[in-house]
Write a structure and sequence with these properties.
Radius of gyration: 13 Å
Number of helices: 6
Structural class: alpha/beta
Strand content: 15-25%
Helix content: 40-55%
Shape: globular
CATH topology: Rossmann fold
CATH architecture: 3-Layer(aba) Sandwich
Oligomer: single chain
Strand order of the largest sheet: 3-2-1-4-5
CATH superfamily: 5'-nuclease
Length: 126
């Protein structure tokens, strides 16, 4: 029996992957080759990652293992209530849905900025 794993890569995780972070790279590889592994990133996180490391958006969008989640109307309402779009949209993507009843874990290279947030995180720092 294969367990299902849902992970949201925040902007810090995307930048870290571009800088050769081994844990981020392994997540992307596993999602590509393992059934039941699902990676997502919020469109707003993709924008912030590309600002920090130009070319990231194009590269990530080309990876079949990562689903880019659009900023739809419900997400826009959630983002509008927060100061940082990338953080708010990533948190929104990690919330439980019918496809992900237990929600998703947020993979990040900046775990401190998720302190006091109602999410589970996976710290990508070695």
């Amino acid at each position: 029996m294969t367990s299902t794993l849902h992970i949201v890569l925040d902007d810090a995780a995307l930048v870290a992957a571009g800088h050769g972070n081994v844990l981020a790279s392994r997540l992307i590889h596993r999602a590509h080759v393992e059934s039941g592994w699902f990676l997502y990133t919020a469109a707003c996180a993709l924008v912030e990652a590309d600002r920090a490391r130009p070319g990231t958006a194009e590269h990530v969008a080309a990876l079949p293992a990562i689903t880019v989640v659009d900023l739809d109307l419900p997400a826009a309402f959630a983002v509008a209530q927060d100061a940082t779009w990338a953080l708010a949209h990533s948190r929104y993507v990690a919330e439980p849905t019918s496809d992900r009843p237990d929600g998703a874990v947020i993979a990040t290279a900046a775990p401190d900025r998720w302190r006091d947030q109602p999410v589970r995180i996976l710290d990508l720092n070695p």
